[in-house]
Amino acid sequence: MTPGEPALRQDAGGRNRASAAERAAAGLSIVMPVYNEAGGLAALHARIVGVARALKARWGLACEVVYVDDGSRDRSLAIASTLPADGLDVQVIALSRNFGKEAALLAGLEHARLGAVLFMDSDGQHPPAMVERLAGHWIDDGYDVIYTAKAHRKAESFLRRSFGRAFYTLINWGSRHKIPEDAGDFRLLSPRAASALRQLPERNRFFKGLASWIGFRQLRIDYEPAAREHGTSSWNFGALLGLSIEGLTAFSVAPLRIASLLGLLLAATALLFGVYILTEVLVFGTDVPGYPSLVVGLMVIGGVQLIMIGVMGEYIAKILSETKGRPVYFVAEHSLTRATSDAAAA
Ligand code: UDP
Ligand code: MG
User: Fold this and answer.
1) d(CA 80, CA 58)
2) Above 80 in pLDDT, residue 72?
3) Ligand of minimum distance to the alpha carbon of 232
4) Cα 234 to averaged position of ligand 2 atoms, centre (Å)
5) What is the pLDDT of residue 46?
């Protein structure tokens, strides 16, 4: 060790102990969107309590859990309100109606009171047992965004997988910043990453994209998602399509570029076809039967134009919704229960 270097900063493994302690001092908010999850919520909370206890024991990390009830129609809110604040603070935020998962995540992010933020589904598919590992990469290794990706998607239908692949190809096409494929919403953000995410002003949110767009030190972890324990996934094809269009228009102008390319292609084809017809008439003197080719040409151009007007409409709709500047969600109820039995947990 060179003289003058603080002895505190290194342990035997050469790791940065002092700053790990500094990081842990920021605390961790676990944000969970809840939509009709009454069946498994209490059991999940019990596991979270266990995780919080382990984090406390290992790093002295204080935790809170933020349940954002996204207008559930079952007893989710009632159940969330009775969960014990056993060694960690419990916040329950009830949105005024169902605003969708992205809005619920934003509500959680904005209400999180501790430094680091972890997003986690409340259906048990994101294993609480992994939280300690994610936290370790933040506290010990200093990563800012630790995101998880499904190790494989065998469980999903062929259609959904192809749809997913097409989506990421399109969204990353020609863009300087690539959004990682298969990354889920299960991710941990360091305090500076969380605050960066809070600064993004857009109302149409696509968290996977934004969390990767902000940069900082990112780390990917592959994991095996658990099967859903209760209820069914609230994503149907329509909802998924909506989110995809959301993500695409927020992150990529690929659809517009495809429009331009298609236009060019059509124009070139038309030009060639024109030259061909002219040669037929002028050189060979053939009487060109015009009707079928005219109809085909008209229909192709008409169809392409309609599609592209639709694509442009998506972007204009996005501009409209951003300029309206409406809040993303409204909070109907908000409660905070402070941790009990902290001494027992420590
Ligand atoms: N969710 C939500 N609002 C919605 C739909 C879902 O807050 O409108 C929550 C849901 O409670 C769960 C998470 O988002 O915690 C993921 O939902 P789901 O399991 O249905 O999606 P999947 O796992 O199939 O992607
Ligand atoms: Mg799920």
Assistant:
1) 27
2) yes
3) 1
4) 8
5) 92
Task: Kindly give the distance from the C-alpha atom of residue 226 to the centroid of ligand 2, in angstroms, as a whole number.
Answer: 9
- Report field, pTM of the whole predicted structure over 0.80: no
CB 118 within 8 A of CB 29: yes
**Can you give the pLDDT at residue 92?**
93
Token representation of residue 56:
């406390």
| Residue spans of alpha helices (H) in 12-111 | 17-25, 41-59, 76-81, 101-111
The residues lining ligand 1, judged by C-beta closer than 6 Å to any ligand atom, are 33-35, 37, 70, 98, 100-101, 104, 121-123, 125, 233-235
Output the pLDDT for position 326. 84
| Contact present, 208 and 185 (Cβ < 8 Å) | yes
Q: Which ligand is nearest to the CA of 184?
A: 1
Phi/psi of residue 173, nearest 5 degrees: -65, 120
Residue 279 forms beta bridges with which residues?
none
pLDDT attached to residue 229: 63
152 pLDDT above the threshold of 70: no
| Cα 95 from Cα 72, distance rounded (Å) | 9
Q: Which residue has the higher pLDDT, 324 or 291?
A: 324
Q: What is the mean pLDDT of residues 94-123?
A: 92
Measured in Å, residue 317 CA sits from the centre of ligand 1 at: 25
What is the ipTM score, two decimals?
0.93
| pLDDT tens track for 20-51 | 888 888 899 999 999 998 888 999 999 999 99
Tell me the longest C-alpha to C-alpha distance in the chain.
98
- Quick one: CA dihedral 119, 122, 123, 129, positive or negative? positive
Residues in the chain: 346
Q: What HEC string does 172-218 produce?
A: HCCCCCCCCCCEEEEEEECHHHHHHHHHCCCCCCCHHHHHHHCCCCE
